[in-house]
Amino acid sequence: MKQILIIDDDLTLRQSLARFLERSGYQAFTAANGQEGLRLCEEHPIDLVITDIFMPDSDGFDVIMNLQHLHPRIKLITISGGGRTTSESAFFLATTLDLGAHHALKKPFSHDEILVAVDALLGKKA
């Protein structure tokens, strides 16, 4: 079973997304910030990380840079609702792709949208 780590400071989003992905056939882990998430990547054979960009302690940019260096095989989806404007939010998401993320989604997104991205990155047919 493929293992997915969800890193987001929003507890409700983490729990909802984890339950949905588990019902979709994945094993899900959750972390409230980048530091906790990177620790979980050391403890478990994570296949894909879904990370928010703006979080306290260690943000999504830190997660991307560390994963690229320490675990380059892990697929990465960034999510964000951050930015004062739509164009600012789009800029931050595009920047994560430039840094090595495989896919980026603007919050709010549907469960179907995230599942299509997850399935595509992990080789599961949608």
Detailed description of the structure:
The structure is a single chain. With 126 residues, the protein is an alpha/beta fold. It has a single domain, classed as Response regulator (Rossmann fold), CATH 3.40.50. Helix content is 48%, strand content 20%. The chain has helices at residues 11-23, 34-43, 60-70, 86-99, 111-122, and strands spanning 3-7, 27-31, 48-52, 75-80, 103-106. It has a five-stranded parallel sheet, sandwiched between helices. Helix 1 (11-23) links the parallel strand 1 (3-7) and strand 2. Helix 2 (34-43) packs parallel to helix 3. It is globular. The two termini are 16 Å apart. The relative contact order is 0.17.
